Amino acid sequence: MQRWITLTLLTASLAALTAPAGAVDDPPPATTTVTLGEARIDPKVPGKVRVDVDYVCTVADEARSLTVAVEQKDPQDTSSIGFGSSRTAEADILCDGTPQHRQIAVQSKTVNWIPATDAVLTATVTNIGATPPASADARRAKLAAP
Predict the structure, then answer these.
(1) For residues 53 and 70, is the Cβ–Cβ distance under 8 A?
(2) What number does CATH give the domain 30-142?
(3) Three-state DSSP class for 19?
(4) Which CA distances in Å does 118 have to 22, 44, 50, 72, 115?
(5) Contact in structure between 51 and 139 (CB atoms under 8 Å)
(6) Within 13 Å and on the Cβ side, how many CA atoms surround 136?
(7) Per-residue pLDDT tens listing for the chain (146 residues)
(8) Global confidence as pTM
(9) How far apart, in whole angstroms, are the C-alpha atoms of residue 135 and residue 17?
C-alpha cells in the first residue's frame, strides 16, 4: 500500500514539474472575431457594394487576411446570380487586439446589384499559423439602395 501512495505522490509531483510556469494563472488567448455590418450599393457604380466589417484580432507572427464575399440571386431570373469577393492585402490588416472597422468594396463583374433584395454576405479573417485558422461571419441581408 505504501508503494502505491509513494508512486502516486511521485507521479503527481512530476506532472506539476512538467507544466509550464504560470500555466494556471495565464489568461486564455484572445480569439479573432469578425462581424458584418451594413451593405450598401455604390451610387456611382451599381455593380459595386460597400460592406462594413468590424474585426478584432491579436498580435501574431503570421500575416492575416480579410476576405468579403457577396452573392445575390435575381428574383426575376433565378438563373442569374451576382457574385463578387474582395481580399484585403495582408499588410492592411491591423491586428493589435483593438477593434477595427473597415469598409470593403465588392465588385460584381457580371451584373449590377439589385437594391432591397436579399444577398448573402460573408466575411473571413484568416491566419494560416493560428488555431483556429479562421474566424468568419455570414448573414443574409437586403442590399441598401444607393
Answers:
(1) no
(2) 2.60.40.2420
(3) coil
(4) 50, 21, 15, 7, 9
(5) no
(6) 13
(7) 444 443 444 344 444 445 455 445 554 455 789 999 999 999 999 999 999 999 998 877 677 899 999 999 999 988 889 999 999 988 888 888 899 999 999 999 888 999 999 999 999 998 877 667 889 999 999 999 87
(8) 0.75
(9) 35
